[in-house]
């Protein structure tokens, strides 16, 4: 028996911890957040993902209390938080720069927020010890931040923001300053800590892999709007727009026109090319413009034309990206369209079947791609 | 060899401009006053060879230093200088910190202008600026005219030739030395630290006390030393703005040299002043050193 799935966003009875209601934020003429409404549920690990300048940091800073919405309301447990200053909110933030106090040692940094609450000294001691243990920093309690490595500083910042047991923890690019290997380890550590403490996390990141790894739901943002908020798998497999499909992972977009046929649609995309066939939940009118988004790992590459494939196209290998475990082939169709195909390198490189300029066949099933309107 | 040669240049400079003059002053302080040119004895006469040097050594003594302890004028002057220097350092800090804070929090495009305004007074002669304060503070001066014109006072205040005028003069003169190091410390302050403090439950005011002040500590210390050290030996300001009751060691030193022509006693005063100053200078250096280590 597996665990019951954690998906309060599908449960109409569930009460959201945070509700954004028609929130707009303007800086002068610039619209940072454009009339957004969405909910975040308790114990979620909610990722705001987008390119820089998309408004994700502004959303987070509004939750932290460092910015106020120009229009609309933000509710925390049903209560409007706009008039509550940051120091009175049950929300803590882990800053991108970590913002550790350089004149205080690690212990004092973690105890900082507890002391402000005038917690009795023995309770502070116990809580700080607990946080040090949680973040595996027991040995470094007496060090100053500048005597710590980047990874340790990151853990101090996390411990400090968790010490007050906030209802909501905001993480602003928490792993941005770490190198790739450490970042991976830390991602799992973050998920672990989130699970142990049961705190609701909202993370801001521009790294899609990070968002996919840690989050229960990912909100893809662009130009102040949430384009799609879904579980990582849904975002990847069922993007609702070309922007999301393109932003997350590698994808080939084939644009054409749709015509209903059988249990799906035929897509005409170029003269002299066979029509493609794909199933879709969305209805398309006859001749309506459509975009077929297809992930490279769902496209197989063969030397001979496969006998029973729904979709099969011939092309020439233009480029090969060798990633060690995987190889991505960029195959150019006669009309110039590039289609990517990815295969696992189960054999050694010297025995690879295809090389540059080879003529190959690409094929995929009718459910491999997603048919999109925009 | 090359390293030695490189190091030699600054050392030679220090030797020629600091150590040698100091040794000369030290030597004069051990001599006796005389009606001669120069006005002290003994003078080193190398013509007599070894015997001359031995005679010269034999005549040096600590008489002048003993004299300094016998007359309470001197230690009173030292103490009074110390008091004036400490009080005016604190006053300069109280005036300078808000200015530096304001500058550091001003919009970016304003900062160069504000910095310019702080440095601007240096473009006018120090003496002229002190004289203009005489014009402002005297009983018929602009300040009294203004206050009487506004009807706040009926009779002119006596400010010039009192200790208050000395404090005003010192605070005014040394204010840039306080502002600049504090400004540079505050400017480097990461704004997200204050947000973090607020996020963790501080009000704006406690965040200022618990984060801004400790992190500008090095700037405050540097500024205080930069004001305290010259203020302790200050001569021009007390003699122009201060009254007869303003007792400062710089003034005593001047009078010994030029009014009494007692070079040996004046030198002894100077040597003691230097010894008093060495302590804060060493502390200042250590602070700088520590800061470099923190940054490094």
Describe the structure.
The complex is a heterodimer of chains A (374) and B (296). Chain A is α+β, with helices and mostly antiparallel strands and 374 residues long. Chain A has 2 domains: 8-243, Rossmann fold (3-Layer(aba) Sandwich), CATH 3.40.50; 250-372, RNA polymerase II/Efflux pump adaptor protein, barrel-sandwich hybrid domain (OB fold (Dihydrolipoamide Acetyltransferase, E2P), Beta Barrel). Chain A has helices at residues 56-64, 106-116, 121-134, 150-162, 180-197, 208-214, 232-237, 242-247; strands at residues 18-27, 30-40, 45-49, 71-76, 79-80, 91-94, 168-172, 200-205, 217-222, 225-230, 252-261, 264-268, 276-278, 288-294, 300-302, 311-322, 326-332, 338-344, 359-364, 370-372. In chain A, the strands form 4 sheets. In chain A, strands 6-7-8-3-9-10 form a 6-stranded mixed β-sheet, with helices on both faces. In chain A, strands 13-12-11-14-20 form a 5-stranded antiparallel β-sheet. In chain A, strand 16 and strand 17 form a beta hairpin. In chain A, helix 3 (121-134) packs across helix 4. The longest helix of chain A is centred in the middle third of the chain and has 18 residues, at 180-197. Chain A is globular, with a radius of gyration of 25 Å. In chain A, 38% of the residues are buried. The mean pLDDT of chain A is 90. Chain B has 296 residues and is mainly α. Chain B folds into 2 domains: 20-61, no CATH class; 68-295, Orthogonal Bundle (MetI-like fold). Chain B has helices at 2-29, 49-59, 63-70, 72-105, 111-119, 126-137, 142-149, 163-188, 191-199, 204-215, 217-232, 236-241, 249-259, 263-295, and strands at residues 32-33, 40-41. Chain B has a two-stranded antiparallel ribbon with strand order 1-2. The two termini of chain B are 29 Å apart. The relative contact order of chain B is 0.13.
- Could you say how many structural domains of chain A there are in total? 2
Find the CATH topology of the largest domain in chain A.
Rossmann fold
By oligomeric state, this entry counts as: heterodimer
CATH H level, superfamily name of the largest domain in chain B: MetI-like
Beta-strand portion of chain A reads 25-35%
The total count of helices of chain A amounts to 8
Report the sheet with the most strands of chain A, covering strand number, pairing sense and barrel closure.
6 strands, mixed
Number of strands of chain B: 2
Q: Biggest sheet of chain A, strands in spatial order?
A: 6-7-8-3-9-10
CATH architecture of the largest domain in chain A: 3-Layer(aba) Sandwich
Radius of gyration of chain A equals 25 Å
- CATH homologous superfamily of the largest domain in chain A, by name? P-loop containing nucleotide triphosphate hydrolases
Strand order of the largest sheet of chain B: 1-2
Weakly predicted, low-confidence segments of chain B: none
CATH class of the largest domain in chain A: Alpha Beta
The number of domains of chain B: 2
User: What proportion of the residues of chain A is helical, as a percent range?
Assistant: 10-25%
- Biggest sheet overview of chain B: 2 strands, antiparallel
Distance between the termini of chain A: 40 Å
């Amino acid at each position: 028996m597996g665990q019951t799935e954690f998906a309060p966003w599908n449960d109409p009875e569930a009460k959201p911890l945070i509700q954004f209601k028609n929130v707009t934020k303007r800086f002068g003429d610039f619209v940072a957040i454009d009339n957004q409404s969405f909910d975040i549920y308790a114990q979620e690990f909610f990722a705001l993902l987008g390119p820089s300048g998309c408004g994700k940091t502004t959303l987070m800073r509004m939750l932290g209390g460092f910015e106020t919405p120009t229009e609309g309301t933000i509710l925390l447990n049903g209560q409007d938080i706009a008039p509550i200053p940051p120091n009175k909110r049950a929300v803590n933030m882990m800053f991108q720069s970590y913002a550790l106090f350089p004149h205080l040692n690690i212990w004092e940094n973690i105890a900082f927020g507890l002391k402000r609450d005038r917690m009795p000294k023995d309770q502070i001691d116990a809580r700080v010890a607990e946080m040090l243990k949680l973040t595996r920093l027991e040995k470094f309690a007496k060090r100053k931040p500048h005597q710590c490595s980047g990874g340790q500083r990151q853990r101090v910042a996390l411990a400090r923001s968790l010490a007050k047991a906030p209802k909501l923890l905001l993480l602003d690019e928490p792993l941005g300053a770490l190198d790739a290997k450490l970042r991976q380890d830390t991602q799992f550590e973050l998920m672990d800590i989130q699970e142990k403490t049961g705190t609701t996390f909202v993370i801001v990141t521009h790294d899609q892999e990070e968002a996919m790894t840690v989050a229960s739901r990912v909100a893809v943002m662009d130009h102040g709007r949430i384009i799609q908020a879904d579980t990582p798998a849904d975002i990847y497999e069922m993007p609702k727009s070309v922007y999301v499909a393109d932003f997350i992972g590698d994808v080939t977009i084939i644009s054409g026109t749709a015509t209903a046929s059988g249990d799906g649609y035929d897509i005409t995309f170029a003269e002299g090319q066979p029509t493609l066939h794909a199933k879709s939940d969305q209805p398309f009118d006859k001749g309506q413009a459509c975009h077929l988004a297809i992930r490279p790992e769902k496209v197989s590459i063969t030397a001979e034309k496969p006998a029973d494939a729904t979709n099969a196209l011939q092309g020439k290998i233009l480029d090969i990206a060798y990633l060690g475990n995987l190889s991505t082939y960029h195959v150019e169709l006669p009309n110039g369209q590039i289609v990517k195909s990815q295969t696992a390198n189960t054999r050694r490189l010297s025995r690879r079947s295809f090389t540059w300029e080879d003529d190959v066949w690409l094929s995929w099933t009718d459910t491999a791609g997603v048919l999109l309107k925009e | 060899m090359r390293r030695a040669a490189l190091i030699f240049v600054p050392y030679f400079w220090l030797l020629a401009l600091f150590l040698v003059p100091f040794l000369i002053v030290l030597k004069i302080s051990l001599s006796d006053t005389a009606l001669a040119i120069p006005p002290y004895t003994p003078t080193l006469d190398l013509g007599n060879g070894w015997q001359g040097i031995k005679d010269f050594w034999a005549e040096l003594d600590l008489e002048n230093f003993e004299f300094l302890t016998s007359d309470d004028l001197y230690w009173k002057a030292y103490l009074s200088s110390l008091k004036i220097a400490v009080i005016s350092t604190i006053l300069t800090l109280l005036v300078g910190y808000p200015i530096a804070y304001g500058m550091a929090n001003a919009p970016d495009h304003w900062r160069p202008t504000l910095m310019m305004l702080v440095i601007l007074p240096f473009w006018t002669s120090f003496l002229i600026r002190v004289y203009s304060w005489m014009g402002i503070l005297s009983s018929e001066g602009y300040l009294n005219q203004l206050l009487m014109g506004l009807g706040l006072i009926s009779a002119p205040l006596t400010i010039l030739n009192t200790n208050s005028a000395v404090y005003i003069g010192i605070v005014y003169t040394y204010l840039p030395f306080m502002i600049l190091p504090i400004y540079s410390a505050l400017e480097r302050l990461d704004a997200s630290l204050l947000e973090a403090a607020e996020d963790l439950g501080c009000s704006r005011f406690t965040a200022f006390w618990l984060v801004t002040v400790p992190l500008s500590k090095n700037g405050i210390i540097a500024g205080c030393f930069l004001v305290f050290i010259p203020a302790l030996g200050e001569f021009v300001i007390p003699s122009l703005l201060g009254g007869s009751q303003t007792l400062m060691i710089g003034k005593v030193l001047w009078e010994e040299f030029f009014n009494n022509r007692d070079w040996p006693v004046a030198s002894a005063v100077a040597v003691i002043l230097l010894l008093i100053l060495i302590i804060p200078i060493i502390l200042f250096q250590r602070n700088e050193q520590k800061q470099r280590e923190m940054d490094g």
